[in-house]
Amino acid sequence: MPAATILPEGPMEAGKEDEGAALLGASEMSEFPRLRPYAALGLLSIVVVASAGLLLPNRGQAPALSEPSARLSEAAVQTTTPAKFWLMCPDAECIWLGKQGSDFVYKYYSRSPWDVSGSIDDTVSHLGAVPQGMWDKIRNKWMQSPPMFKGAPVTMQDLANFMRATLQRDPFSTGGQKVPWIDLREGGAGGPIHSQRKAIIVNHRQLAFLIINSLIGNKLQGVETGLDAAIARCNDINDAPGASPDMLYSLVAYLAILSRELVGDQDGTFLVGTTPGPVNNQWLQDLPARTMKLPTLCNHERLGAGTCGLSDFMAAGVPFQALTDIAGQDVGGGAQLCHVANSQDESLVIFYPEVLAFSIFVGNNRMLPVPFSLLGARRYLNTIYGETGMGPPFQNLCGKVDDGSLLNENILMQDVKTKVSITPVVIKASSFVAVASYCSDCHRGECSEPDMFNNLCDSQRRHLDQDISLWLQAYNNANYHEAVSQTFAAVVKRIGTGPWGGGLWQGDCQQYFLAVWLATSMLPAMELDYYIYDHFCENAGHQCFVLEKGLCEKCIQLSGMSAVIDASRCGDAGAAEMVQRMNGRQAQDIYYLLRDIGPPPTQVFELMEGMVLRKK
Question: Which end of the chain is more exposed for a tag (fewer CB within 10 A), N or C?
């Protein structure tokens, strides 16, 4: 896309904030002030790079999609990754080890990590930040039956050895007690309107170093990080609503797998955490040049309609596929990073501990902002899928920490050789992207929840521009910091999603399928993998409406939600028929038809099919 589609970095110009607010609609007061209900619990992305002597140009306008920056190409390209490389990009300027005038980026631990390492005995009998009773629940079970990884047990001794070695390694090459740190919410950053281009690039050893210090209670001075707050909040045995071993299992599982992957002095591959620039609708300028691209439809096997052959997008096993987190205001939502819930966003962070751990880069006890992306993020724990059920093992929860088979032995291993700015790095071919849709449920006063379940609310169809803008804000690589824009494009080549927009925020799934397909078609190098479930882990049964009549009726019956999802609302056309009719058509034509779609009770697909046929 042309560079004109990207808003400039830095404070918004006069009137821009009002323009962004108008784009998102009045119901978005203060960037989605209405949190997803705690009972349903719900919502992530981040980048960092650094190195001694790293050259980064001053940044003006962000590069256009897939277009290299001229100034970057003029710099002397590095051919190898410096040892213990890291990068912090709090604004247009990035900070690396040894850069003059960069003292502000460092924080200091209260105690020397080397000294603290001596408190870790061979059985990790104590973690200073965790109540003993809570830690003993995990430790005792672990010692009795160590989890397996790649056919061998990972013992407490293995974990202790890795933790001590990491604390003694000085992974940032700063002396150990001093570490680079930026706040992804600093200056009011966060939310679609106020999102700022920031990036953090660290390797696995460096992230493990930060996690271990937090677990043993060695805190950074002068800042209350989101990770430290979560450890205290989630593991207080006197606080029943928040007490859960889930988040502890998550962090320890990450360390356990790294204890096997990082042998000797290896530091692992890199993670890039990043937030994009503010939302905009300048994609409208590109509509005439785009056509609808063929998506991959992935029916769940329970539907008996044939599968796409790809693994579940929430289980993370498809190389170069980004997992779409159906986010709210914060990554991790109402469960506050503590435990698995009956909603997707709240639960995903437990199974993707790198995302959870990146909350250390937020101050004031807060959580990661949305939108957010973490390139290289992988699933470390079992078990989570898009499909759940009312009975065991999930009991209506979005996943279950399987302490009997804790570690993901099929963890994605494929690497991507790419660059951050001019520095070569290796990143795992997997990523996590948190992006919020428009909140249809915020209009509940205008339309009842039962009507929302059955796509009977006109308000569910009146925010197409907002949703396309939000989707492209998160998935257009040109919206990200110049140092990592090319990195995003190299790692994210396909988007995996379920009923984005049609979860707890009660959007119309037919409308949202077409909106997501249209938005992804605006990105020439991106593919869409759309997954269809009878019992998605939030708003179960509602996605059945994207199937043709016979399959839709079967889907609703399988979902167990026929008491609230009306099978008589199933239409003759499904997503497959929409793709057959519209693939290869001008994106502009589909946009205008969808923007001006008629009201209920006729379903969106039926109205679209009629209009597309008439327009031929």
Answer: C
